[in-house]
Design a protein that fits this description.
alpha/beta, 4-stranded parallel β-sheet, 25 strands, 5-stranded parallel β-sheet, binds flavin-adenine dinucleotide
Length: about 425
């Protein structure tokens, strides 16, 4: 090829490339991207859509709450060693620093055909891409009488951090000495596998210091402790002997609000003074209502390369609402990681670039066993092209050898880092 030809062909190729990227850039800049839910998944996605698009994508976050309250560390508020303000962060950095438009409202319906969402305030917004990260819904009907007991204020879940977290601590604080705090755990999968066992530790820690005749009853529908089992059991034996009683294979089927009595599939009834009943869980209500929950009507199947729902095009679902890959926990850390993969894929798709074919995710979950000592579980998940799912990387991650105060420092470091990463 002579020099003239080479320059001519190169110029044509560059011209095409410039035209293509110009068009693609326009697609990215024109697209309306709505993020529904400002929790661990949604807030991170909104911020990273702006970062990965060099602040050019139009991103609107819809969230009913005025500020973000973290479920991680909320068990310390239930146990009384920390306050709710210590786990609350504002949303305004997302708009001030990153240019995300925030609407304080909730989405009442999504029309995947017209590609619009309706807000509780009555407004309708169009979207080209929607990210849905509404967390979990508590299936109150899975325990007979639970909805009524909740309405009467007899039972609380505090499984979405906020006013119920504070109210549950108040119930614990006003429980008679000699009373029983019962926490029930549904069959997995549910939000945060180690969360209920950590909560039992926090409640026991409070009782050990304030109401020494009282106890915690863990009523677990599962065969055994679902996360960090050996570590929790050792702590219960060494730090909370005579305070925590663990009953596996105890599936609560009904509650009588008047007598505070729990009924089970097989075992005899049990009465308790404070009832913290965690029912079965499903994808957040808006995801189920939109028909996205195509795994047993409970969880949302997604394409793990871009987190697009397999039920509806251009709706990407993150966090606790999805049907997880094997050994992938429903955690805030995971939701944050889903968000980055989805945000990168959406920016790539709208820019005409290839989507990363081999994403890698990590997870760490810390559990406080008292106010200071912590244990962790960690894992690394690599996308497997042949099986189209994430697989745990052999030899990755691991567990703490024992609780330690050093891990307590790491746990607070993790929390401040992830809040800054998602919201700062
Ligand atoms: C006690 C406890 C301890 C935990 N500890 C840990 C831990 O140590 N580490 C860890 O990684 N994870 C932990 N988790 C799990 C973690 O909180 C969840 O996995 C995480 O919050 C999931 O993120 P998400 O975005 O799916 O949902 P969320 O963070 O719950 O966010 C959902 C958001 O969507 C909003 N929303 C819902 N519906 C609508 C709608 N229709 N319109 C607009 N907005 C809507 C909600 O208001 C909410 O802000 C814990 C959970 C609990 C309960």
């Amino acid at each position: 090829m002579d020099r003239r030809h080479f320059i001519g062909q190169s110029a044509a190729a560059l011209g095409m490339l410039a035209g293509f990227s110009g068009q693609a850039r326009a697609n990215l800049q024109k697209a309306e991207i709505l993020v529904i839910g400002g929790g661990y998944g949604g807030a991170t996605a909104a911020k990273y859509l702006r970062l990965f698009s060099n602040n050019t994508a139009k991103v609107t976050l819809i969230e009913p709450n005025a500020s973000f309250v973290s479920c991680p560390l909320s068990n310390l508020v239930v146990g009384g060693s920390r306050t709710i303000s210590e786990i609350t962060s504002p949303y305004d950095n997302l708009s001030k620093r990153h240019g995300v438009k925030i609407i304080q409202d909730s989405v009442t319906s999504i029309d995947p055909v017209k590609k619009t969402v309706k807000l509780a305030s009555g407004k309708t917004l169009p979207y080209d891409k929607a990210i849905v990260s509404p967390g979990v819904a508590l299936m109150m009907n899975s325990i007979e009488g639970l909805a009524q007991a909740n309405k009467a204020g007899v039972t609380l879940q505090a499984w979405k951090a906020g006013p119920e977290t504070v109210a549950l601590h108040k119930q614990l604080a006003s429980m008679r000495d000699g009373g029983t705090f019962a926490i029930s755990i549904p069959e997995a999968p549910y939000r945060c596998p180690p969360g209920p066992y950590e909560r039992a530790c926090q409640v026991a820690n409070y009782l050990k210091q304030n109401k020494t005749k009282s106890k915690v009853l863990i009523l677990d529908a599962n065969q055994d402790v679902t996360s960090k089992g050996a570590l929790f059991k050792k702590v219960w034996a060494e730090q909370y002997s005579g305070i925590i009683e663990y009953l596996p294979k105890h599936n609560v089927t009904a509650v009588d609000a008047k007598t505070k009595t729990l009924k089970f599939e097989v075992q005899d009834d049990i009465k308790a003074d404070v009832l913290n009943l965690l029912p079965a869980m499903s994808a957040g209500e808006i995801a189920v209502k939109t028909g996205l929950a195509n795994s047993n009507g409970r969880w949302v199947n997604v394409n793990f390369l871009n987190f697009e729902s397999t039920a509806q095009k251009d709706i990407h679902v993150l966090g606790d609402s999805i049907q997880i890959a094997p050994a992938m926990p429903k955690s805030g850390h995971m939701a944050n990681q889903h968000a980055k993969v989805a945000a990168a894929a959406i920016v790539a798709e709208l820019s005409g670039w290839d989507v990363n074919p081999a994403p890698v995710l990590t997870n760490t979950c810390y559990s406080f066993v008292n106010e200071r000592e912590v244990v962790h579980v960690a894992s690394v998940h690599q996308y497997n092209t042949a099986e189209k799912t994430f697989k745990t990387v052999p030899g990755s991650g691991g567990l703490s050898p024992a609780p330690s105060t050093l891990e307590g420092v790491y746990a607070w470091g993790w929390a401040h880092n992830i809040w800054a990463d998602s919201l700062g």
